[in-house]
Each structure stands twice: as structure tokens, then as C-alpha cells.
Input
Amino acid sequence: MFREMNEDALIGSRLRELRTLQGMTQAQLAELVEVSRQTINYIENGTFCPSTFLALRLARALHTTVEALFYLKETEG
Output
């Protein structure tokens, strides 16, 4: 049986951690990747799952890999 999953709840992010380690504000990162500061905030709070394109742009802006920036959370079953 197919079980619908909420992707936002299953994907974790180290965005806030890596952004602050580099001394960057949400607004600065948003400008670099051409999204709103609110989008960065939503990703950091786990309420928005970025597209592959945006995930790649974020990783490039933070000089890391997508795999280091985002991860799958452990799920039951």
C-alpha cells in the first residue's frame, strides 16, 4: 500500500549551521541564490523543501555539497 509522505518532514538541513559558520546572514545568502530571505528562513525551519536546483545553488554558495547540506531523517517502518 502506498503511504503518502510529507517530504518537508523527512528532509533535514544543516543550512543554518553552515550559513552562520561562514558569517552570512539569511539576507546575504538569499541574495546570492536569488530567493527571498523568507525562503531561506523556511528551509532552515524545516517548513519548505527546496527544489534540486535551489539545493544545488545553496550548496555552491556555501562551498559544500548537497549531501553535506541536506540529509534524510530516520523514519519508522
Q: What stands out?
A: The first strand starts at residue 11 and ends at 13. The chain has one domain: 13-71. DSSP finds six helices and two strands in the chain. The chain has a mean pLDDT of 89.
